[in-house]
Amino acid sequence: DTAVSQTPKYLVTQMGNDKSIKCEQNLGHDTMYWYKQDSKKFLKIMFSYNNKELIINETVPNRFSPKSPDKAHLNLHINSLELGDSAVYFCASSQVRPGAGSPLHFGNGTRLTVT
Amino acid sequence: AQKITQTQPGMFVQEKEAVTLDCTYDTSDPSYGLFWYKQPSSGEMIFLIYQGSYDQQNATEGRYSLNFQKARKSANLVISASQLGDSAMYFCAMREAFSTGTASKLTFGTGTRLQVTL
Q1: DSSP 3-state of A83
Q2: What is the pLDDT of chain B when averaged over all its residues?
């Protein structure tokens, strides 16, 4: 009964390759996010979708392309992987409510290592 | 400008003692929410506690309480009766209600690593 699940948990690949990370949530939330956690543990938002519509697109290279086939799924495709892409990528979801009170529910993260 | 500041990169506390993890924030939005998350060494992000900017009382959840001082723009997390399992990274985060888009983001601080000792 996992709430936010992402696969794979670990991803090791070579520079220049293309890879995808999948995320699914069964909480019925309207909004999904991708966050990147770097080696210093800093968490930064990359993208957010609300009901399949891209809402937030922070300064992220064009090599990163999110896709939301429906509001329960948000995938992240990365082209031409670079060493600097090595990080932990977290998917998250939340319910949209008036005000600021909805917490994000995170997946367990995907540790991407580019060699 | 840093929106969320956690000035303690690391903290130590003895088991059964209380510990306060500091968080200050910066916003001009009158409506905002403050969150604390725990990240154990296994890596998952666990939501702990939430405080709304209009809440009159400090939030509490079990052994966690939030010391909210609005005028000082601080939202410190207090963990009472520390346990060995509390050893983890702790992140403070803020959502501004009127930030861009209907799915406003959570902005995180740099985290505090808490180590509970015997």
Answers
A1: helix
A2: 93
